[in-house]
Amino acid sequence: MMFRGIVIFLLVSFFSLSIVWSQEPYDPCSQALELCPNQTYQANNIGATSVICPNCQDGFAFCFSPDNTVWFTFTTNAVGGAVDVNITNLSFQTNPGQDNELQASILSASAPCDASTYTALGNCEAGTTGNFTLTAPGLLPNTTYYVVVDGDNSGAGVTSPAEASFTITVSGTGINRLVSDVSITPSLTTACQGEIVTFTASVTNCPDTGDYTWYVDGILAATTTDPFFQTTELQAGSVVSVQTACYAQCIEMVNDTSVPVVIESFPLDAGPDQSVSPGQSVFLGGSTTATTYSWTPSFLVSNPSSLNPVVTPTETTTFTLTAIQNGCTLTDQATVFISTFIDIPNAFSPNNDDRNETWVIDGIEVFPNAQLKVFDRWGQQVFETIGYSENKAWNGTTSRGANLPSGVYYYLLNLNDPENQVFKGHVTLMR
Q1: Rounded to whole angstroms, what are the CA distances from 394 to 222, 355, 371, 386?
Q2: For the CA atoms of the chain, what is the radius of gyration?
Q3: Nearest to residue 148, comparing CAs of 96, 90, 73?
Q4: What span, in angstroms and rounded, lies between the C-alpha atoms of 144 and 27?
């Protein structure tokens, strides 16, 4: 018996429940829903309220007095003119004693949501159960107007104002816009491999332009504030797209895509990197199908117009092969490295016996900018020179010429070459 009582209680509770609608965010005038041209919005005034007091948002009485208002807003175009607000597909709540008519008006307001500044425009709908249109002729350009929709609360036996869901659309010469568009110019069809290509976005009927978002083959490449985009990354068949926003209110996104790009290219190879000894000559191994080509730096090659010239670099050098075909220029590089043959002795004896009097470093002569620093065992620098050679070789004295005692010293040799080679170690001075 107790179980049956619980079941009956739950059933009664369930069937006595009613759906509670929360207020829409556009219930107050200050949060009026913006209506964009020729777009349909689903709306309702279910659970809406009104604020009626001097100069308050609902302190007005035109062809109706407000009870449960909801607010909408729209902005006319640069020309202005007539605007129609269509309210259709009305579906009313059917609670006992509830009215079933909507009422509405288009308003201008010199001060936002201040009822003392409202002016009703066009026809005012006092109450209807079916579709209706509010029409306001001759609206000013670039001006914001309001639409207020309310439930009627009159008639015999009515105890609560009407609540309904509906669709709302705004249209007309005063709000319709010219079609916005963007196009990529020039209409590029051919480009050279690796060249800088500039794309320009040209917009029409697009005020308040936002940033330009650029894509290469559907992948985001850049976002620019100006309508320009440059790239060197185009491949054969690449397409470039752009997207931007028009209008600060009721934003419209526009986009365009270029035609697939044909990339002009041809084989070009400067050959492999090579390593040689100082003073050794070597052939560069260039190849290309182009008929016009040359090497740089030209003064270091035997024949800049040959694909396989002889070079004898004195230091590590990068050679660039440039070729031209069908108006396109391509480059490739090969580096000839000077092999480092540095022989650093680990001891010398400046004792005036004419043998090993100086610390001679073989191979250092090909590094004229080499810097040598010598330190004693306490880390104090005792000798330094730039441009080390046999004539400048360390003889066991300080940089000021004072003799140093026998012992182990530590060196730091920086060749200052393109490869930034640095040698560290120790040398024994024996007297």
Answers
A1: 58, 14, 12, 12
A2: 43
A3: 73
A4: 18
E-strand ranges in 129-273 read 132-139, 144-151, 164-171, 181-185, 190-192, 197-204, 212-216, 219-224, 228-231, 240-246, 252-257, 262-264, 268-269
How far is residue 287's CA from residue 269's CA, in Å, rounded to a whole number? 5
| The overall pTM is greater than 0.70 | no
Question: In angstroms, rounded to a whole number, what is the distance separating the alpha carbons of residues 116 and 245?
Answer: 37
Q: What residue type is assigned to position 190 of the chain?
A: T
Q: How far apart are CA 326 and CA 268, in angstroms?
A: 14
pLDDT digits (tens, 9 = 90+) for 287-315: 999 999 999 999 999 999 999 999 999 88
- Let me know: does 41 contact 35? Beta carbons within 8 Å: yes
Of residues 306, 305, 313, the one with CA closest to residue 273: 313
The token duo for 311 is: 């070079």
Pairing of the two strands 292-296 and 274-276: unpaired
> What 3-state class would DSSP assign to 426?
strand
Residue 397 to residue 404: CA distance in whole angstroms: 5
What domains sit in the chain, N to C, each tagged with a CATH number?
Answer: 20-171 (2.60.120.380), 181-263 (2.60.40.10), 268-338 (2.60.40.10), 347-429 (2.60.40)
pLDDT score of 397 more than 50: yes
